[in-house]
Design goal:
Layout (H helix, E strand, L loop, with lengths): L25 H7 L6 E5 L10 H11 L4 E5 L18 E5 L5 H5 L25 H12 L5 E4 H5 L5 E3 L4 E3 L2 H5 L3 E3 L4 H12 L13 E5 L7 E4 H4 L24 H8 L8 E5 L2 H4 L3 H13 L8 E6 L2 E5 L8 H8 L17 H6 L2 E3 L1 E2 L10 H5 L4 E2 L2 H14 L6 E2 L1 E3 L13 H6 L19 H11 L6 E2 L7 H4 L3 H10 L4 E7 L3 H7 L4 H17 L5 E8 L6 H13 L8 E2 L7 H8 L20 H11 L7 H10 L41
Helix pairs in contact: 2-7, 11-23, 17-19, 19-21, 22-24
């Protein structure tokens, strides 16, 4: 295993001068004096040389290790011609769908094709195929026979084993056999991709490289010397071989390993690779929903880099082999990744074309990675891991200064200091030994773990230093806020509200009722109320009129019609009027998606008498749940009246303060009155 720091860059074969931007054409290669590329990255997004875009990060990291990296962005996938544009890569093609899953990018939660694509010049739709990783990998094979192909990105990460595919309503195979790629890298792949490139440069074949964390590949059988455990033997009633039940919802993780053992785990030196867990095969999980839920549960049990074991799943005559997750990056390594010589602008070939995703993030700064929230509908943990990886304050401030000095038409406003969440910066388990042994899926559900450090002081200090930089007029926080953590630090809320809210702050309670919240692993609405009280208190003290924008999910597993009615009543009582709402979209590999498909709850052991989970799947019911969130929209009133009558809730039809909709024929049918309230969110959508 590669044991050097990520930033140990003394390549023995070649030193390169950083390119102004990575080349996208032969002409640019000639300008750099290159006869060939070592690695070619194929991406479904427009190439933007900015640390918020995966292809730029991987390209610049490889470049800093002496490799010549080219980019093929949004190629025409209908033939292999565009994939030959830079010639044959000397080492491998790296294939990514882009910053988003291509199916989520192209389709709405109702499976309708979207009319635009934020990652494409002018927002044009149709510039990438469905299941882009699979299609691009196959075209790379066609372009040059025998070329090595490595797939990655969130699309590959979330499809690394057999998975439920919402768009076809089937269980699909791992993306590895479908794409015919040689290897899959999952998660943020800097550590893996450097080791792969170095070893291939030294003469190893891609098929010989089978011991790198955070990678998956195909093999015929379990090698000699390995101990194979069946997942059904591990996750059955009874003793769990001294492993903590990951879904026993105690508030803390008290079982630990010695400190020196934890240090060996996180240095990658502890030999855990000789045990592999066999999941039910693709053929089994596609025909048995209970086994699918079981496999999902086991996958999530084996996600902590400190104690995860290899997984294997049969697909026909071969196995998909998953090595344990990669070791998280240290602060020094995170700094090094973000300090690469990014130009921070789109590739020059796009001219003045507007790329919406770039406009949204060009003055934002990513301060951390990972999330220990464990929300079942979210894929961040499956991709980035639950251990928070934070940059140093100095590195973040250098990036702000770079934005100030290099961004065209910079107005002095930093649009966001954040990441997967706004306020998990430098939060971590109090003990690395406990962290390495823990198998719980969340550090904050059903309550905040007593071993979790929730001190927001480093984040407060970062905010103060950021807004003190010369030329910076305002620093806003746009990333989603974890309010149950924020209420542990009123000083943080005061700092945030006084200096870093643009007038509106998005926040995601997701629901008010315990049924769906327990399936989401989200805190109760009481935590939101506590945060709102502090938010409004400090807004008044600052002399500002500021509003919360609450987000809610319709049709999530575990949600009944009655749950949605009670949520609508809460919204009206609190004078919240959501403008645009989102129905649950089952993303591959998410725990909530396993609930959606299987009707079972993988947060508990899967047994014949396991808890069954109801999910609104029919379009009529999903439409009703969305309409209840927009109870104030006259277009929804006929549907709501009919549904409320069928539910025996005629009391909610009328003109009284408790009513959700007026009677038919009301003079307000065209448009309902808009009550004036400081709690009312604006009529605009935030993502």
């Amino acid at each position: 295993m590669y044991s050097q720091s990520l930033s140990s860059i003394i390549p023995p074969w070649r030193l390169t001068t950083p390119a102004p931007q990575l080349p996208m054409s032969r002409r640019e290669m000639d300008e750099l004096g290159w006869d060939a590329c070592d690695i070619i990255i194929v991406t479904g997004d427009a190439y933007i040389d900015h640390p918020s875009f995966g292809m730029a990060v991987i390209g610049r990291v490889l470049e800093s290790h002496g490799f010549r990296v080219g980019i093929i962005a949004q190629p025409d996938w209908r033939s292999a011609e565009d994939f030959r544009a830079l010639g044959r890569p000397r080492l491998f093609y790296g294939v990514t769908a882009g910053n988003m899953d291509s199916m989520v990018n192209r389709y709405t939660s109702e499976r309708r094709i979207r009319s635009d694509d934020a990652y494409t010049p002018h927002g044009a739709a149709g510039k990438r195929p469905d299941r882009a990783v699979t299609v691009y990998a196959q075209r790379c094979r066609e372009a040059f026979k025998g070329v090595a192909v490595i797939i990655g990105s969130i699309e590959a990460s979330l499809r690394r084993i057999a998975h439920y595919d919402y768009w076809s309503d089937t269980v699909r195979r791992s993306v590895l056999p479908d794409s015919k790629a040689d290897m899959l890298v999952y998660g943020n792949a800097e550590r893996q991709i450097i080791e792969i490139a170095r070893r291939m440069q030294q003469g190893e074949s891609i098929r010989q490289i089978t011991d790198i964390r955070g990678t998956a590949f195909m093999r015929r059988e379990v090698p000699a010397g390995w101990t194979e455990l069946r997942s059904t033997d591990i996750d059955t009633p009874g003793e769990l071989i001294r492993h903590v039940d990951p879904y026993a919802m105690e508030p803390a993780c008290d079982e630990a390993v010695p400190q020196q053992t934890a240090a060996r785990i996180f240095s990658g030196r502890l030999n855990q690779q000789h045990t592999v867990i066999r999941l039910p095969s693709y053929e089994q999980v596609k025909d048995d929903a209970a086994l699918y839920a079981h496999a999902s549960r086991l996958l999530h049990l084996e996600t902590n880099p400190g104690n995860a074991r290899a997984l294997v799943q049969r697909h026909g005559q071969r196995d998909v082999w998953l090595n344990p997750p990669p070791i998280p990056l240290s602060t020094e390594e995170m700094d090094w990744v973000f300090d690469r010589p990014y130009s921070r602008i789109p590739h020059r070939s796009y001219g003045d074309a507007r790329i919406p995703a770039y406009e949204m993030i060009k003055t934002s700064v990513n301060i951390m990675r990972g999330c220990f929230g464990g929300c079942t509908f979210c894929s961040i943990t499956e991709h980035e891991g639950r251990i928070i990886q934070s940059r140093s304050e100095d590195s973040i401030l250098r990036e702000i200064e770079h934005i100030r000095d290099k961004t065209p038409r910079f107005a002095g406003i930093i649009s966001d200091l954040g990441g997967p969440t706004a306020n998990m910066y430098r939060l971590a388990c109090a003990s690395r030994a406990i962290e390495a042994a823990c198998r719980k899926p969340s550090c904050v559900y059903p309550d905040i773990c007593k071993n979790l450090n929730t001190d927001h002081t480093p984040l407060i200090r970062l905010y103060r230093r950021a807004r003190a930089i010369r030329g910076i007029r305002k620093v806003f926080i746009a990333s989603g806020l974890r309010y149950d953590l924020a209420v542990r630090s009123p000083a943080y809320i005061r700092e945030l509200v006084t200096h870093h809210v643009s007038g509106y702050l998005k926040i995601a309670p997701e629901h008010t009722e315990s049924g769906p919240l327990s399936k989401m692993m989200k805190p109760g609405i009481g935590s939101f109320e506590a945060f709102r009280t502090l938010f409004e208190h400090y807004s008044r003290k600052a002399g500002k009129k500021q509003y919360l924008i609450p987000y809610f999910i319709a049709a999530h597993p575990g949600t009944t019609d009655e749950d949605m009615v009670r949520l609508a009543q809460w919204l009206k009582a609190n004078r919240f009027r959501p403008d645009q709402v989102q129905a649950f979209l089952p993303s591959p590999m998410a725990t909530a998606s396993a609930m959606y498909y299987s009707g079972r709850n993988p947060l508990k052991k899967i047994r014949p008498d396991s808890e069954r989970v109801f999910t609104p799947k029919r379009k009529k019911q999903r439409d009703l749940h969305k309409a209840l969130l927009r109870y104030h929209d006259p277009a929804n009133w006929p549907l709501l009246r009919k549904a409320l009558q069928a539910m025996g809730r005629r009391d909610l039809i009328g003109h009284g303060p408790e009513a959700l909709v007026p009677p038919a024929g009301t003079r307000h049918e065209r448009r309902p009155p808009r009550p004036v309230s400081r709690r009312r969110p604006p009529r605009r959508q935030h993502k």
